[in-house]
Amino acid sequence: xxxxxxxxxxxxxxxxxxxxxxxxxxxxxxxxxxxxxxxxxxxxxxxxxxxxxxxxxxxxxxxxxxxxxxxxxxxxxxxxxxxxxxxxxxxxxxxxxxxxxxxxxxxxxxxxxxxxxxxxxxxxxxxxxxxxxxxxxxxxxxxxxxxxxxxxxxxxxxxxxxxxxxxxxxxxxxxxxxxxxxxxxxxxxxxxxxxxxxxxx
Length: 201
Ligand SMILES: Cc1cc2nc3c(=O)[nH]c(=O)nc-3n(C[C@H](O)[C@H](O)[C@H](O)COP(=O)(O)OP(=O)(O)OC[C@H]3O[C@@H](n4cnc5c(N)ncnc54)[C@H](O)[C@@H]3O)c2cc1C
Known about the structure:
By secondary structure, the protein is an alpha+beta fold. It folds into two domains: 4-83, Uridine Diphospho-n-acetylenolpyruvylglucosamine Reductase, domain 3 (2-Layer Sandwich), CATH 3.30.465.10; 91-198, CO dehydrogenase flavoprotein, C-terminal domain (Enolase-like, domain 1, 2-Layer Sandwich).
């Protein structure tokens, strides 16, 4: 219940057979560009612990996804732990995606986590985007557009307009660059709106 967004992510992955067999670690190690957990882990600020013959090391999520199905795990290592910090007080998190109609993979998925201060001003915004490019990325423009502001509808709308910035949006069978960029903006707005509501804003 302290990280309910993770169970929400799990509930909309694939179908029951996929959900019953797939693992969190497997998804993060696989780094499919359309996988759901990567966006959520970016928004939540997770850390991955790798272990190999030379010992253990911790990798921050921002250093984890290296490219198309490529991560920071070494050839002689296993991902042995995923550490996800519990949300601070007055925080909310949400994940929204446009699912592929067959596989349910994210054509675009956006995870947002926000923390509000005592005056309802956003003291921290953390946003991850999956599906649009070759790897899940942090939406820094959206975060900057939220931090230090009251997250009313107009501010969320303006911040969400930055969602495709910094994403290497790829045209593929699911859609054009323009279409997927549009989905980034739409789902950033939806995820932020729900996260703010959950934070009590
Ligand atoms: C039909 C279908 C629909 C799907 N839909 C979705 C979806 O909607 N959303 C979504 O996010 N995902 C989706 N997936 C992906 C699925 O949820 C799993 O994440 C994926 O199949 C990986 O499965 P797994 O966890 O069993 O990992 P595995 O298949 O066991 O491993 C995947 C890769 O990661 C490596 N690996 C696994 N564990 C580790 C580890 N601990 N350390 C280092 N390397 C490791 C393996 O060597 C392998 O290369 C779908 C998959 C299928 C087949």
